[in-house]
Records
---
Amino acid sequence: MHVLITGGTGFVMSVLARELLTSGAADRLTLLDQTAPDPAVVGFIANTDAVNFDVVDVRDSEHVYRRIHDARPDVVVHGATVTQVPEWERSDPTRYVDVNVLGTSHVLDAARRTDSVRRVLYISSAAVYGSGNCVPGPLSEDAPTRPDEMYGVSKVAAEMVAQRFAALYGLDIPVVRFTMVFGPMERPTSGRAQMSLPFHLAASRVTNTSLEVSERTLRAGGDWISAVDVARALRMLCTDTESCAGTYHLASGERTDVPDLIRAFGASVTTSASSTVDMDPDKKFGKHAIYSIARARGRLGWQPRPLAEQVAEYLSWAAANSKFFHALN
Ligand SMILES: NC(=O)c1ccc[n+]([C@@H]2O[C@H](COP(=O)([O-])OP(=O)(O)OC[C@H]3O[C@@H](n4cnc5c(N)ncnc54)[C@H](O)[C@@H]3O)[C@@H](O)[C@H]2O)c1
């Protein structure tokens, strides 16, 4: 199977690339990204003989079409995105529409005009739920979307564009919403500037320094999942032989309190009023909720591993790649 992944040199998509190759699900990959692969990605994916890296901006419709048409993939995973950064949203809100909505339309249009493509996975986000209704318990995959930032707005719009392409051209386009992802290969990219709390905890372990967080962060919690578990579910969605249409959550499905997360990482943490590592404990709904994973579990038979196992794997990757954290910290 040949899989073309947009945003393929970024964090989660590079973990998917490795999963597809190491599992044997794909024998060929095209990684399309506006950023050329850095040594970290090349080292992580390892079997780069099977990979074609393609520097393409998804805003360039003609270039996207030519590359997808020439590559003739079986499956396309569309993960290229610009994520929520308040300064980016304020200074250039149109970029979210250009990259996340128009870029999605370009990728889908190229896919439907290329007769080799049997499925497109659209990678979305829990940001579609915005601040949300005060619904207790895990949020269902069919909960109403109420985005409250340009990133979430653009993800909802792109999901609707994807649904329309599916209806118009009979394409199989599962929509996959991730919660807060952590794990190997998380680093700043042209699409993302804010690192997760687990990234900071891993950096503190590897660099042997204490992490400063705001005091209220210690009263917060959330639904974290490793990119490795996410990639396993995405691989299942790539290889499934039946239609996979529908919306999936890839999440743990459970709340983890920040003190428990800190313990799992074995990190040393202090509090500081000026710390930029800050979570608001009152934000518990919508994009800050816990998510039902019933559809991924029922339809794919997917189940995330226990958090302790996910964290241990990440820490062992972090220890083996400590230079990476020293350079980024
Ligand atoms: N990391 C998370 O916690 C999380 C949570 C929810 C959803 N997601 C989704 O997962 C996907 C991957 O996100 P990530 O966290 O790995 O982010 P990332 O920034 O590491 O990856 C995004 C990639 O898109 C590329 N990109 C940005 N603009 C582009 C453009 N114009 N043309 C081509 N490529 C472009 C970037 O260079 C980057 O490599 C995204 O669709 C994101 O919305 C991630």
---
Amino acid sequence: MSKLRRRVVTAAEAALAQHKYVSTVDVLVGLGWLTSAHVERWRQGRAPSLAKLAPVDGARLRDVADLLGEWARESGLTPSDTSYLSGSRDRAPLIFVGDGDEAVFRTHWLSPDLSPARREQMVQRQNKAPDLTVVAAAGAWTCAECADTGPYQIMSDTGPLCLTCADLDHLEFLPAGDAALSRRAKKESALSAIVVRFNARRKRHERVGILVEEQALARAEEQCLADEDARLRRRERDTARRAAQDVEFQARMAAEIQRLFPHCPPERATEIADHAAVRGSGRVGRSAAAKVLAAEAVTLAVIASIRHLDTDYDRLLMAGTPRKEARAAIRPTLDRVLESWRG
Ligand SMILES: [Zn+2]
């Protein structure tokens, strides 16, 4: 027993560290007695009990639940009785062992580190009714009620049902892939079901889409379209605003150039301001300093313009003159133009 207890504690600590609570099912998976595929099958309502899937008997599973409870109480964890409903048409309570009281298996032990709000949220999430789960039929099968067959089946208390017998055949299949559309369609649909298909290679069921009401899907599509329109309108507004900002910025910069350099030809001042203000150009005039129109930044923009247009600077650079040398060479011309513009 002490050896099992050690293994239970190790598995429990790992689960607790991972998601701030621990359940008997977590520990059984941690012990290697069950796989997550087993648990998934059981949760879908496709196994009579969890014990039927485990390599040990129900009494042994109970031992694990008891050991977990002992350790959890010693460790100051908070018990939370959790509803375990299946994803079958009937949402039947899930059966762990099938004899005697099952409450011990349903107890989730919550970390004492959780804030009251976080704990409340966790309890609510864990008690939420599970999604109905429909399985895309892989082989021949017959409905437990009408003895017919179909592309989808859902488990019920009496066995697998076709969608007609399960009152789900008015739903439309929406393949997985568009997360926003799926989420909205599910939200809009009073009734919906997750569709899974068995992947033989990976030995587990995988989600392939959802079944939703036709009108819900139509509404969801409208919302997604409306969103695209809204996004486009938003982009247009942003562009217009940025353009307006730039126009205003350019005008203010041109005015500032004229203030600092009264003899600079007005068209030249406008040109420098436009050039400096080109969005994302990374030029001097777009620097943060120029944005606040600091005199130094405005002067740098003016100097850059003079270098390129009134001196041999570009030609020197093209001829292979090092930048520092070229700057020194054009310096007298540059200073002369600057002085003449200052007046
Ligand atoms: Zn049927």
